[in-house]
């Protein structure tokens, strides 16, 4: 109850707390490349082929950079993504204004549940960020009415009540779940059997149950999850809406990836739905154009490194999708490209430790990073020197971008993050090489494994890119550690659930399940996997608590963290060929509709582990 009281008092200040952290609507984005993209083409994509650098291990970025020709944008075809639309900035602004008027009209009509439906559709179309301030104001009003008893609730309408509960919690307004859903349960605390026939309501209840934050007051949401899952599984045969609700609950899906399917599948019954759909189509097409430009930048950067022959795993799309998930907004284009480079280095260095280098080489490699001195790498293979040089230059590049934009330099903090990551890599490698893994406990393995996911490094980098963490910022990096730890634990545990598939790739990888079963010899493998699944569920509750209700961590960064957690299952859903078919389909849907340069065959190869 103490938490409930605290949240209710904090919610009164919610509008003030987030008003400075909501991203502005995108600037004019059309067929022409923005200046920021053009600048990044000339400054960030200049790294030489490997053979040009073998004589000088003491690499200075100013000496080895070569200027690449500017990227040319191909003419867009008329038919894009979800319908025939024109890439016209005036049309874009016109449709955006129409969409905003829809929301305002429902607000002015005092249609409480109608306006909730509009907000829900906007979120699912991934256009809600254009109207954040108005949406927050509307939900704050509904939250106030709910607490004061002024709401015109239909006590028997499970759909409306579940929808409002989910939307309020998603926006950070804490409503006790027991107060909301207690009316739908019997004396045993179970949901009433007659609700099983209200499929629309049960689907909304299932969506709401994913916002559980744990604790004694949240048992009813756990029961809601059990009840709704059981009901929907019994009726999902032949019903695509139910199947999608079970497979892709909104709160645990990446909105940018599901928006296109939602618009295509939506049954338009009212004019306002068509209005929102038109704007969503334009918005999707505009962003697709920008994203494809960024993909081309990343491809050119990677080819310029000269590592394609040395390191077999070319996964540029996978790297980029991580950064797109973290920073999806149009005004963060430079940040996406920079963060993709950072993500790529985590993957490459992980492969160096797991596959390519000897123990002696990795030890020397880590020493070079800890001293941040390329001369320490003398004697290492050229590809390892190249990785080090690119790491040092990328760190400087990111730091300079942050300094120019926000007036402070995060270089020292970024170096510390890299040193921490590489020390964790080498600890893991030592355990496996010396056979120490037999004596390592499950908790120690998980603690180290949280670091080796790269989540703390990448998310902290994104935190700095958004202008946070400087000397004058009250939100320090310590405040974000609980979120990052929980997200990294989710990644590590889900990755380890597929350890059998991973062993086919790496041969030596251990897993948390393996360590845990050593400590509990009477437990079966199935029991161990179930236990890990429950651990993931508990970590999600912690993520929800921090990302939804934190008053110290900026709103935009909390959304980035949520998106990382949402992305993880998609990144580890391998098929028998060690590919990621779901992720591949999502990328093809987003990027390849009108761009002949991004092909299905390329995606098939790039999305392998």
What does this structure look like?
This protein has helices spanning 2-11, 14-18, 35-44, 61-64, 89-108, 112-125, 132-148, 158-170, 177-181, 199-209, 219-235, 240-247, 255-265, 271-305, 316-326, 333-356, 359-371, 382-406, 411-434, 442-452, 455-465, 481-497, 499-506, 512-519, 525-549, 555-571, 581-591, 600-606, and strands at 79-80, 83-84. The protein is mainly α and 609 residues long. It has two domains: 35-70 and 307-572, Farnesyl Diphosphate Synthase (Orthogonal Bundle); 82-280, Alpha/alpha barrel (Glycosyltransferase). A two-stranded antiparallel ribbon has the order 1-2. A hairpin with a 2-residue loop joins strand 1 and strand 2. Helix 6 (112-125) runs parallel beside helix 14 (271-305) and helix 16 packs antiparallel against helix 18.
Low-pLDDT stretches are 9-87, 500-507
Average pLDDT works out at 81
Radius of gyration: 25 Å
What is the CATH C-level name of the largest domain?
Answer: Mainly Alpha
